[in-house]
Amino acid sequence: MLTVNNFITAHYQELLLGLIGLLVLLNAVLLLNRRGSRDRAVESLSDLLLRSQAELAGRLSQLSENSSLEQNKIAAAINEQKMAVLKIMDEKLLAVTKSVGEGLQQTTAKTTETLTDLRERLAKIDVAQQKISSLSEQVVSLQEVLSNKQARGAFGEIQLNDLVTSILPPNAYEFQVVLSNAKRADCVLKLPNPPGTIVIDAKFPLESYHALRNVADDRAKTEAERFFRASVLKHIKDISEKYIISGETAESALMFLPSEAIYAELHANFSDVVEVSYRSKVWIVSPTTLMATLNTVRAVLKDAKMREQAGVIQKEVGTLVEDISRLDTRIESLSRHFKQANEDVDGIRISSSKIGRRIQRIEDIELGGTAAPAALPRLANDE
Hints:
Layout: H1 4-34, H2 38-147, H3 149-167, E1 173-178, E2 184-189, E3 198-202, H4 206-213, H5 218-243, E4 253-256, H6 260-269, H7 271-279, E5 282-285, H8 287-368
Parallel strand pairs: 3-4, 4-5
Antiparallel strand pairs: 1-2, 2-3
Helix pairs in contact: 1-2, 2-3, 3-8, 4-5
């Protein structure tokens, strides 16, 4: 279809061609004038102009009619194109609206799911935060306990109490015992002689250990090692003098260190201190080694208990042998009684048999005749 611009351009071209034709006629007239044929040229020009005018008028009339028709066609085409464009726009708009709606639904569902997951994760994070806060409080509380010397000693005593009570029977230990020298022992193991009563004392040289672990240079390390060595040696000396009493306790005692790290440091880098403890008969133990020691003590107590009961068991076995001997005598006597009874039963059976035969003979005589019978012969074994 032609658009309005195309229509106007086409008719302008037709008008331009008409004007060009007029210019060509005028040029022809001028040429004829130069040759001296003026009158004929004028006549020809007049005729030509008239014809051209008539032709131009017809063309203009036709152009006007065609213009109206073309305008109607163009308007109809424009209206048709407008409706098609509107239809396409409606379809596109519906498609876009549907796509946007579906996208919003999916986005809403995903957002809801994400918010649910986020809420669950926040709940888990809140629980973990509470646990972390509780753990932090416990750590702070433990630091406060370990920073105080008395509380640190109580911590060691509680750990010692837990280990001893979980392994040994109640009659094999006692806590906070006052000895004959008025010294109070943290724990006493009641073992038979030898070795006798063994004292366990809890020590926790944490300050000197921290000073040793936090040294900055060699000089500070030397001072910290000297401080740590002196602290442990003092504890060994105190235990040796206070808790090893001749005739009352065993010849040795135990020093309990409630820290595996301190125990490992002591045996790894302070062998001279460990040798001093051996000479002083003060055995240094950690929670792990104390557990092994207590298990050994339990085995010793069990063996001692068995030895104590061995005499009782032997006496009971002797009594049991005597009872068995008396039982044999009584069984033999009963056997004799049974044998005599059997003999008596046999005699009774024989007598009964004889009586039966005599009765039979008497019956035979009575049935045989009326004469007085002679004396009946004695049966064998009549008594």
